[in-house]
Write a structure and sequence with these properties.
alpha+beta; Rossmann fold; Immunoglobulin-like; 11 helices; 27% strand
Length: 455
């Protein structure tokens, strides 16, 4: 055998190994999602098209087996100016035009559902502000003013075909609507966007759903799906025979489950996705990168903290700076490299190691939201600690609080903060996240994690 033949043979062997490894990830490493005839599936989609991207194959399987299914849309997707401009061939600027695009996306969702055999009666649209629901989660509860949408300028649900037209853009209103659907549909499995997703609406839907389930004492299984994540899926193009695998830095920490799709299911998923014309025309390669032979769901485990026990939240370093940032933003990029948390002497201590000292235009925010059974969540403190180059500020929603509530230890690349649990409402559970950003432009963020405080 000459050198050329040896090289060809070696290449074939390597290719076979790569294909085998790629296939084994879904079939062996991650357990297969199992459905039963007694299931009732609720899919929570922040925007029209997310239901297809994350759960298009699942929906088909449910329809085939006559398993009840309901799809709940958080927004009408009326903020995607780039896709609107491509669709209309001109800028869409007036609030009337933006609302009309929301109605178009609503119609696209109905068309997509029809292709899969989902009846219109199994779709519910809430109509909260696209790209605004995380901001509602942060700052718009109880006595705070309703959020104002950036494009529609609305402060309440403007769509007549929504579940509750005229509902104020407030956190308690979103909770009320989710609870209504939960109580009426009574799901056995819930599929919702991921707490580690890069899109703020996707993270918010996970958080609101968590509170709603706790308030109702519902122990339904929850299966988060990922849509937006840095440089994922890879490659970002149509490769229908390539197994969808999780982002590398979430492979171990998240407990994933897999669902294998047939060729026919995969093809119908593509045809259904194309019904979302406004999005397909603008983001074809990206959306098609989810049209794979499988779908994935997985959640972070809850963190159970006893007194004096430190829990590492994981290493979230991306390895590469997000490509969508501008050159000047890349130059001062601050990565959240390592995070940890512990409970000690009635206080929560949060530690962050960052890739470089905070620059003049960069800020680091830490969010600590408490949950306590029997207490209206809208009344619980929503703590936001914002660090600048030298100092810091602490807020409850939009209200500035005394710095005396905090103990801070700070080095150029390390920050440790300590806060009394009473300042968070003596919670039984805590939502925790951190992010770095320039003005309102995100640089890096940690997934929202849920901490269970053990006695």
């Amino acid at each position: 055998m000459n050198m050329k033949e040896k090289f060809i043979l070696l290449s074939i062997i390597l290719l076979f190994i790569i294909i085998s490894l790629n296939r084994s990830i879904s079939s062996e490493e991650y357990p297969e999602m199992l459905l039963t005839e007694n299931d009732r599936l609720l899919i929570l989609a922040p925007h029209p098209d997310d239901e297809i991207v994350g759960c298009g194959g699942l929906i088909q399987k449910a329809i085939k087996r006559k398993i009840p299914i309901h799809i709940l849309f958080l927004t009408y997707g009326d903020f995607n100016e780039w896709s609107f401009m491509i669709y209309r061939k001109r800028p869409v600027l007036s609030k009337e035009s933006v609302l009309n695009m929301g109605e178009i996306r609503h119609k696209e969702a109905l068309s997509a559902a029809k292709v899969m055999g989902v009846g219109e009666e199994n779709l519910t649209f809430l109509g909260y502000p696209d790209f605004g629901t995380q901001e509602i989660w942060y700052r718009h509860w109880n006595t705070s003013k309703a959020y104002k949408s950036l494009l529609t300028r609305a402060t309440e649900v403007p769509y007549k075909n929504a579940l509750r037209p005229g509902s104020p853009y407030k956190g308690e209103e979103i909770l009320k609507d989710i609870k209504t659907v939960l109580n009426e549909f009574k799901p056995t499995k819930i599929f919702v966007t991921h707490s580690g997703d890069n899109h703020p609406d996707h993270r918010a839907f996970y958080l609101f759903n968590s509170v709603a389930l706790w308030d109702l004492h519902i122990k339904t299984e929850v299966y988060p799906y990922l849509v937006h994540y840095n440089k994922w899926p890879n490659p970002r193009k149509y490769e229908p025979d390539r197994t969808l695998t999780p982002p590398e830095n979430l492979m171990e920490i998240v407990k994933w489950q897999n669902m294998s799709l047939s060729h026919d299911e995969r093809d119908l998923k593509v045809r259904t996705l194309m019904e979302h014309k406004t999005q397909y025309e603008a983001n074809k390669d990206y959306l098609l990168s989810f049209m794979r032979p499988n779908e994935l769901w997985g959640d972070f485990p809850f963190i159970e903290l006893n007194s004096n026990l430190t829990e590492n939240l994981g290493v979230y370093k991306e390895g590469e700076i997000p490509g969508e940032l501008l050159d000047e933003e890349k130059a001062i990029f601050v990565d959240l490299e390592k995070l940890s948390v512990k409970i000690e002497d009635g206080k929560i201590e949060f530690s962050a190691h960052i890739s470089r000292p905070i620059a003049e235009t960069v800020a680091l925010s830490v969010y600590l939201f408490g949950y306590r059974e029997g207490v209206d969540f809208s009344l619980m403190p929503k703590i936001h600690i914002k660090f600048g180059t030298l100092g810091y500020e602490i807020y409850d929603q939009n209200k500035k609080l005394s710095k005396n509530l905090l103990n801070i230890k700070r080095k150029p690349k390390d920050i440790v903060l300590s806060l009394s649990l009473s300042a968070i409402g003596n919670p039984e559970r805590i939502f925790l996240s951190a992010e770095t950003y320039i003005a309102d432009i995100p640089l890096d963020s940690s997934p929202w994690r849920i901490i269970i405080i053990k006695e």
